[in-house]
Write a sequence for this structure.
């Protein structure tokens, strides 16, 4: 459900509507636009008296969202999101290139790659400190040592950092070092991991899982947004 606020609505009135929705058991997501503010209300719509909300000060309209995904729907937010990390704007008119080694193997290897990709025009450095492998005997990544190397590469080059998170137990650790949390294709439907990552407040790069439909992909993104990711 989308609650559309009238142009020029005061912040106090938005807060009143948001508080009322929460009293009714809804999770809320406020989006402030250039002209209007909208409130996404996620929950059991049978508990919502649309007429009662519509009569609250500042409310212009109450619109149902028909798709199974709500927060990532264009019905809730028509304009494209722009994610800003330092001077980098992802989602704007400029192409953002994220480049770097598949796996962080050594500080020398990573720093050489970081300087090379920056010189080539990339603005985000990618590198895996945790590597999900088909074989349990294959190299699984340098883990925290690799994260420290990524942080050092960021310090030396000014590049933002994106790295993959593969386990809920490592979410807090990875969030300390990276600018963007990456969910790999194998974990696109690891719903507990999606929730945990969403709670960090970090931007999330969500890869589409193997054989996943577009709706599957969007529903995975919904888990991240519903957990609190802006």
């Amino acid at each position: 459900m989308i609650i559309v606020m009238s142009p020029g609505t005061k912040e106090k009135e938005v807060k009143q509507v948001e508080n009322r929705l929460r009293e009714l058991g809804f999770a809320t997501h406020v989006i402030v636009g250039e002209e209007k503010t909208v409130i996404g209300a996620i929950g059991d719509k049978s508990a919502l008296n649309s007429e009662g909300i519509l009569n609250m000060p500042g409310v212009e309209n109450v619109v149902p969202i028909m798709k199974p995904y709500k927060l990532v729907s264009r019905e809730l937010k028509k304009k494209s999101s722009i994610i800003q990390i330092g001077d980098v704007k992802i989602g704007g008119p400029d192409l953002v290139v994220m480049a770097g080694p598949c796996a962080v193997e050594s500080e020398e290897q990573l720093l050489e790659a970081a300087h090379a990709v920056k010189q080539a025009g990339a603005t985000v450095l990618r590198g895996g400190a945790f590597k999900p492998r088909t074989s349990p005997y294959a190299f699984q990544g340098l883990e925290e040592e690799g994260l420290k190397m990524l942080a050092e590469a960021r310090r030396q080059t000014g590049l933002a950092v994106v790295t993959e998170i593969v386990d809920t137990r490592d979410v807090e650790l990875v969030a300390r070092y990276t600018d963007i949390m990456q969910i790999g294709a194998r974990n696109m439907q690891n719903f507990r991991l999606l929730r945990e990552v969403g709670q960090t407040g970090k931007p999330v790069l969500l890869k589409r899982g193997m054989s996943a439909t577009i709706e599957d992909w969007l529903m995975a993104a919904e888990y991240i947004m519903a957990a609190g990711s802006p």
